[in-house]
């Protein structure tokens, strides 16, 4: 049995839940993280992930943390070469977007998301909110240009792990109250993703 530790409101947990759904895996999900009754700082959880963060995956083979690593592991374990191709360049194109999402894109949205969605008191500097909003929109323009090229998914005609990490991020961008750049290719892509059960359940499910 696969167990996913982490709340379904977490963007990083949602990537993993969507990947499981895309592969057709049975799993149990246990809520962990702020806002749930299960504390990531408990000794039991820290033994799973010393970073005190979700998601964590546990299966018969071992325990893993880091959401993108978990998604790659699942695609490899269940031989879903459509989600993570074998050809080195094709695979690297998918991983490029995964790394970019985890580093560049995530850093862009953090401040304005904490301010506007989480309404966190420590994230209320107006200049920083604007800078984060502008940076987030600039990063979204990069996705727009890529989707203009492929006219389908992030790396081509097929859905890959690049779309799972990008899709949850686009949902967050659309659902965060702020000024949004006009991005028609991103909107068409969002509609395309909405045809997938995994995205409807864990991506476009009303949670930013
Ligand atoms: N790089 C990590 C980041 C994980 C992360 O930031 N998780 C957040 C939720 S999205 C978390 O666990 N926060 C602590 C909490 O919710 O208590 C990954 O991709 O798995």
Summary of the model, kept short:
The protein has 208 residues and is of the alpha+beta class.
Commentary on this structure:
With 208 residues, the protein is α+β, with helices and mostly antiparallel strands. The protein folds into 2 domains: 2-77, Glutaredoxin (3-Layer(aba) Sandwich), CATH 3.40.30.10; 88-201, Up-down Bundle (Glutathione S-transferase Yfyf (Class Pi), Chain A, domain 2). It contains 8 helices and 4 strands. It has helices at residues 11-23, 43-48, 67-77, 88-116, 126-150, 161-175, 184-193, 197-202, and strands spanning 2-5, 27-30, 56-59, 62-65. The protein has a 4-stranded mixed sheet, covered by helices on one side. Helix 1 (11-23) links the parallel strand 1 and strand 2 (27-30). It is globular, with a radius of gyration of 17 Å. It starts with a strand and ends in a 6-residue tail after the last helix. Residues 10-12, 33-34, 40, 53-55, 66-67 line the site of glutathione (GSH).
Beta strands, count:
4
Helicity range of the residues? 55-70%
- How many structurally independent domains? 2
Beta-strand percentage range: 5-15%
Taking pLDDT < 50 over at least 5 consecutive residues as the criterion, the unreliable ranges are: none
Read across the widest sheet, the strand sequence of neighbours is 2-1-3-4
H and E order? EHEHEEHHHHHH
Q: Name the hetero compounds present.
A: glutathione
The CATH C-level name of the largest domain is Mainly Alpha
Q: What structural category characterises the helix and strand content?
A: alpha+beta
How far apart are the termini? 29 Å
Number of helix segments? 8
CATH architecture annotation of the largest domain: Up-down Bundle
């Amino acid at each position: 049995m696969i167990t996913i530790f982490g709340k379904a409101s977490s963007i990083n947990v949602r990537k993993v839940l969507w990947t499981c759904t895309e592969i057709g895996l049975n799993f149990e999900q246990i809520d962990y993280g702020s806002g749930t009754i299960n504390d990531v700082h408990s000794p039991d959880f820290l033994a799973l992930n010393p970073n005190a963060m979700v998601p964590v995956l546990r299966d018969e083979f071992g325990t893993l943390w880091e959401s993108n690593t978990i998604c790659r592991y699942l695609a490899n374990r269940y031989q879903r070469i459509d989600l993570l191709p074998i050809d080195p360049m094709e695979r690297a194109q998918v991983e490029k977007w995964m790394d970019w999402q985890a580093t560049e894109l995530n850093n862009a949205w953090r401040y304005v998301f904490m301010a506007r969605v989480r309404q966190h008191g420590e994230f209320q500097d107006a200049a920083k909110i604007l800078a984060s909003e502008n940076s987030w929109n600039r990063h979204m323009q990069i996705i727009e240009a890529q989707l203009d090229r492929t006219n389908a998914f992030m790396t081509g005609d097929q859905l890959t792990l690049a779309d799972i990490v990008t899709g949850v991020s686009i949902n967050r961008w659309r659902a965060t109250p702020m000024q949004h750049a006009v991005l028609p290719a991103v909107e068409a892509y969002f509609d395309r993703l909405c045809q997938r059960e995994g995205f409807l359940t864990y991506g476009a499910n009303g949670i930013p």
